Amino acid sequence: MDEDYRSAVRFHGHECPGLAMGYRVARYVKDRYQRAEDEELVAVVENNSCSVDAVQDMLGCTFGKGNLIFLDRGKQVFTFYPRSGRADKALRIYFKDDLLRDMGDLRSRFFGKTLSEAEEKEFEALKSRIVRSILSAPEQDVLSVSEVEMPEPEKARIYPSLKCQQCGEAFMEARGRTACGKVVCMDCFEKLDA
Ligand SMILES: [Zn+2]
Ligand SMILES: [Zn+2]
After folding, report:
1. In this predicted model, what pLDDT tens digit does every residue of 104-143 receive, in sequence order?
2. Which of 38, 44, 168, 193 could join 79 via S-S bond, C-beta 3.0 to 4.6 A?
3. pTM surpassing 0.85?
C-alpha cells in the first residue's frame, strides 16, 4: 500500500475495515480534487467511525480547523467542498455496503463474547481478508459518487466567552444557561437542574 495508507494506519492506531473504507474515500478525493492553498477542503461526515480517521489524516480535515463537520446520521457518507465556496457543487461519496456483508457476519459472530485462541485467530484472519478486499476492489464496486448542491455556508465559529457564576470556568456565551438567577455553564446547569 502507499504511504498515505501507512500514515492513516499510524494515525488511527490499527488496521481495520473501517479505516480501509475511509482510505478509499479519501484516496478518491485526494486524486481528483485540485486543492489550492487558500481553498481548504471541508468534509461533512455522516458517521464518527474508524473511516473518518483516514479522512482527517489524508485530507487534513479536522475538528480543530473547523473543516470536519459531523452529522450524526450513522451512514458511510462523506461530502466534500472547498471552504471558499467558489465551487457550485459538492462531491458526495457513499461507501457501498455490499462488501461489508461479511462484516455484519463478523460482528455477530465475534462481538460481545470472549474468544478462544482459535477464534481470535479466525477473527483476525477474516478482518484482514475484508480489509484486503476493500483496498483492492474496483472503485465502482465500493464508491457511489455524485455531485450535490453545496451545503449552507458555515456559521461563525468564534463566540465571546463568559465566566460561569457557579464554577468560575469560562465557556462560550452561546452555550450559556440560566439557573437560580445565575448565568451558568452547561455542566452547572445540569447539576443545578437535577
Ligand atoms: Zn478502526
Ligand atoms: Zn459552571
Report:
1. 666 676 677 777 888 888 888 888 999 999 999 999 999 9
2. 44
3. no
Alpha-carbon span 11 to 19, nearest angstrom: 10
Q: Is 66 left (phi over 0), alpha (psi -120 to 50) or beta?
A: left
The dotted CATH code for 3-149 is: 3.30.1330.130
Q: Which residue has the cell 477473527?
A: 123
Report the separation in Å between the CA atom of 16 and the middle of ligand 1, taken as the mean of its atom positions: 5
Cα(20) to centroid(ligand 1), Å: 9
Q: For the chain, where do the domains classified as CATH 3.30.60 start and end? A: 161-193
pLDDT, one tens digit per residue, over 6-36 is 999 999 999 999 999 999 999 999 988 755 4
Q: Which ligand is nearest to the Cα of residue 21, counting in written order? A: 1
Q: Topology of 161-193 in CATH? A: Wheat Germ Agglutinin (Isolectin 2); domain 1 (3.30.60)
Helices 3-12 and 17-32 meet at what angle, rounded to 10?
A: 130
